[in-house]
Amino acid sequence: MSNNNFQEESASDLPINLSNPAKRALIGVGYTRLEQLTRLTETEVLKLHGMGPKAIDQLKQALAAKGMSFANKS
What is the C-alpha separation between 41 and 44, in angstroms, rounded? Predict the structure, then answer.
């Protein structure tokens, strides 16, 4: 593994088991850290191409493990 790959992986704390389409969807719009997702509602994240109910559940579990959650609807 090159140093660059290590830096990219350590910079992201998205779930390791998150599907590649879901990872691409999040990274494509600039979300690489779970805390960034706390500004978005579940519905907003679900609208991203490549995101599905299973990915949302995985993200909810990862957020909850860190004491965080998606934003509430306003």
Answer: 5
Extract the tokens encoding 34. 């779970």
The angle subtended at Cα 22 by Cα 70 and Cα 67, nearest 5°, is 30
Q: Determine the average pLDDT of the residues in 35-57.
A: 96
In 3D space, the residue among 72, 66, 74 whose CA is nearest the CA of residue 14 turns out to be 66
* Distances in whole angstroms, Cα of residue 65 to Cα of each of 13, 38, 39, 57: 12, 13, 17, 12
Q: Which two structure tokens, joined as six digits, stand for 25?
A: 């969807």
Residues in the chain: 74
pTM for the model: 0.82
Strand (E) or helix (H) holding 16: none
